[in-house]
Write a structure and sequence with these properties.
The chain is built from nine helices and four strands. A hairpin with a 6-residue loop joins strand 3 and strand 4. By secondary structure, it is mainly alpha-helical. It has a single domain (about 35-240), classed as Growth Hormone, Chain: A (Up-down Bundle). Helix 2 (about 15-35) packs antiparallel against helix 9 (about 205-220). The chain starts with a helix and ends with a strand.
Length: about 240
């Protein structure tokens, strides 16, 4: 019982299941928005952009290839930016660096929402950069690695956990199944919502993602992040660290 109490007290809010659902919903909405409103470009699924870029190159359509290349490059820039922000401000006390990432992401997407259809390329690179910052900064749910802006890794991990549960009847594996498939379901719900609303609000649809992420900022303020605790599957070993990752 004491072990469970320590877990609840020290678990990072950025590691909490409720926050992973909030930002995953936003991730699904972002992908649907750029695809439906901004010229069939993926904000998060860079594999799709790589395929479409390569197709454009091979067919001699340089304009199409360039349209998909830019989001790929800015996704990389977003990861680079978030990694450096996390390192530089990892000891911040007044505002956790992950909250700062969400606020910066909100600002970027708000600006993108102001851009007309003629500026789709600029909007796509901004949103791709914001998505990369999100996926780099929020990578765990209850100690399990996951992605808030794409599904393939979550599907693999969730299915592997399901297989392990069926084989070993380990209840920790069942929890992992719930985490991963819960995130996938919420991501899909966000994508569907983004698709529906895109036909109503058009370029402004991305502002809903801003509101959702602001809710994430407030959630992180409810439970300040002081220490991280990593607990193995059997709950027999616990390691507390003070540095923020």
């Amino acid at each position: 019982m004491a072990s469970a109490n320590i877990r609840r007290k020290n678990l990072q809010m950025s590691d909490a299941f409720i926050l992973s659902l909030v930002i995953s919903f936003s991730g699904g909405l972002q992908d649907a928005y750029t695809y439906m409103v901004r010229g069939h470009v993926f904000a998060n699924a860079q594999t799709g952009n790589v395929v479409l870029m390569s197709t454009g190159l091979m067919s001699g359509d340089a304009e199409s290839a360039f349209k998909y290349l830019l989001p790929i490059l800015f996704f990389a820039i977003g990861v680079f930016t978030a990694e450096n922000i996390g390192y530089r401000f990892r000891n911040g006390r007044r505002l956790h660096w992950r909250q700062g990432i969400l606020l910066l992401e909100i600002l970027i997407m708000f600006i993108a929402g102001l851009m007309p259809a003629e500026m789709n390329t600029a909007a796509n690179v901004l949103i791709s950069m914001a998505c990369a910052m999100q996926v780099q900064s929020f990578r765990k749910v209850h100690g399990n690695s996951y992605a808030s802006t794409m599904c393939i890794g979550n599907l693999r991990s969730g299915t592997a956990a399901l297989s392990a549960f069926i084989r070993d009847r380990d209840r920790q594996e069942l929890k992992r199944v719930k985490y991963y498939f819960g995130v996938i379901a919420i991501f899909a719900l966000g994508a569907g919502t983004g698709s529906l609303l895109s036909g109503v609000f058009y370029e402004r649809t991305i502002w809903l993602s801003c509101l959702i992420l602001f809710a994430g900022v407030l959630l992180m303020a409810v439970r300040p992040e002081d220490n991280e605790i990593y607990i193995n599957r059997n709950d027999n070993e616990m390691k507390s660290i003070n540095e923020r990752k």
